[in-house]
Amino acid sequence: MRKNSIKNTRINGEVQKVLSTLISREIKDPRIHPMTSVVGVEVSPDLKTAKVYISVLGDDEAKESTKRGLKSAASFMRGQLAKILNLRNTPELTFVIDNSIEYGVHMSHLIDEVNKNLSREEDSESQEDEQEDEKEL
User: Fold this and answer.
1) How far is CA 57 from CA 60, 88, 100, 133, in A?
2) How far apart are CA 137 and CA 125, in angstroms?
3) How far is the C-alpha of 61 from the C-alpha of 74, rounded, in Å?
4) d(CA 12, CA 10)
5) pTM value surpassing 0.90
């Protein structure tokens, strides 16, 4: 099975769905931040390993404690995956913090600031033009 085959893509999606549900509803570890979401999953073609990309809304300390909590709950989640999904092998789970959502929000704020500054400059230029026109009259 190739890495980007249809079957592999479908397995990635199913594993992501199940893990999202498990993290949000089943795991009661206080280290895991309540605003944790599974952004993506990459299951290897041989179904032995899976990289789980998670996003945590919070500071660096919350991210690290969530990662430790998920690492300790990995065996439970793997067992639940085996029960729910009928796969030849149940993958070992590796958790990776994904900062792409925070990066996107940060870039969006920067773009908004640039747009505000541009509109202010345009407004001041148009006011200067109006004042010059009034002086000429």
Assistant:
1) 9, 34, 12, 52
2) 19
3) 20
4) 5
5) no
Separation of alpha carbons 24 and 109, rounded Å: 28
Q: What is the pLDDT along the chain (137 residues), one digit of tens a residue?
A: 666 789 999 999 999 999 999 999 999 899 999 989 999 999 999 999 999 999 998 888 999 999 999 999 999 999 999 999 988 899 999 999 998 888 888 899 999 999 888 888 777 777 766 666 666 66
Would you say how long the chain is, in residues?
137
8 Å CB contact between 73 and 29? yes
92-97 and 36-43 beta bridge pairing: unpaired
Question: Which two three-digit tokens encode residue 24?
Answer: 């949000």
